[in-house]
Amino acid sequence: MTIKDVAREAGVSIATVSRALNPKTESLLKESTLEKIRAVIKKLGYMPNRSASSLRQGFSRTIGVLMNFKTDTTSGYVGEIMKGVLKGLDVIGYDLKLISQEEFSSFRFLLDNAGIDGLIITHAYHIAYPHLKEELEKTRCFPLVVINDYKKDLNASQVYIDTYQAIYDMTDYVIGRGNRDFYFLGGESYSQDAQIRQGAFLDALGVNNLDFNKDRIFNGHFSEVGGYEMTKKIFTENPDFRGLICSLNDAMAIGVLRALGELNLNCPRDIKVVGFDDITIVKHMNPPLTTVHVPLVDMGYEAVKIVHDILTGEIDDVKKLQFSYRLTQRESC
After folding, report:
1. SS3 label, residue 98
2. Residue range 133-185, pLDDT digits in tens
3. Contact 296/281 with Cβ under 8 angstroms?
């Protein structure tokens, strides 16, 4: 099946079919013509030769996602984002390329050499890619979206939630439920996001006039293993603790629940636990986890849409899109 067959069946020229297959030119066609061509493509089962079309049109119809292959491939957070990314790619007919963050010398290099048209970064751009901000200042609108890790002056499109307010609201909620005794599982001191979340937690305690010993802040490295190990450490140092463990993400909270089980401590009777992100698995935990729902799937989908809109000229400036979050109350607290 060739493009000539599609053109013949649709009653249009080969050039018109070619425009319909190119996201940069499809807007030049009438919607009725575009729909007719798409219907014929589906009927005939036509599959364009993307390698050939990339050479002709100067784009690859591929969007890259920059990842840490050591951690992100098993991350529930990244997994939720990828659900939305894959959904978005299916809608626009693009392919996906996973790119190791170790290959990221510059964004321009990836565009020129990695066979991608645009890029999505899932988190922590300022840690893994400290030179990105400087590179972006030299251009107007790269086909790039950073998910979360929000920074107002970053010259890149971003989709994000108000992380500070979300943690503050969660902390205020658990205090309102009568909790007064806490441990806090956070992240690295150099992580901007971790420090914002920790600050929100401490601010909420302060507003509620609650004393808190900062020695009870442990670094769980945003991982299940970290949550597990830090929980064991908590009860080695303070076996009589009976309160609430606040985890900055669901992965650490999963590790907390596993450790509590091994310590024969019941959640929520003995220890209460809260997380952050609301990844799919936590509603199936025993007990199901109270957490902050972050619409990661929707954010991944929107990230693809923004990259595509930049490529097609629908938008010609960076886009900052804030999503809503919500507290999801379950049995762990």
Report:
1. strand
2. 777 777 667 889 999 888 888 888 999 999 999 999 999 999 999 999 999 99
3. no
* Count of Cβ atoms closer than 10 Å to residue 252 Cβ: 32
Torsion of CA 110, 116, 117, 119, to 10 degrees: -70
CATH topology for 3-57 is 434 Repressor (Amino-terminal Domain) (1.10.260)
- Please name the residue that has the structure tokens 């901000």: 133
Quote the CA–CA distance of 300 and 39 in Å, as a whole number: 27
Q: What's the pTM value of the predicted model, to 2 decimals?
A: 0.79
Closest by alpha carbon to 195, among 245, 144, 260, 151? 151
Q: Where in the chain is the domain with CATH 1.10.260.40?
A: 3-57
Q: Residue holding tokens 């919500």?
A: 326
CB 273 within 8 A of CB 267: yes
The pLDDT tens digits of the residues spanning 66-102 come to 887 777 767 889 999 999 999 999 998 899 999 887 7
d(CA 317, CA 70): 33
Between 31-44 and 14-21, two packed helices, what is the crossing angle to 10 degrees?
90
What's the CA gap between 68 and 303, in Å, rounded? 18
**Domain 163-293 class, CATH top level:** alpha beta
Q: Considering the domain 62-160+296-324 in this protein, what is its CATH number?
A: 3.40.50.2300
Domain boundaries for CATH 3.40.50.2300 within the chain: 62-160+296-324, 163-293
Report cis status (omega within 30 of 0) of the bond before 143. Answer: no
Do residues 263 and 233 make contact, with C-beta atoms less than 8 angstroms apart? no
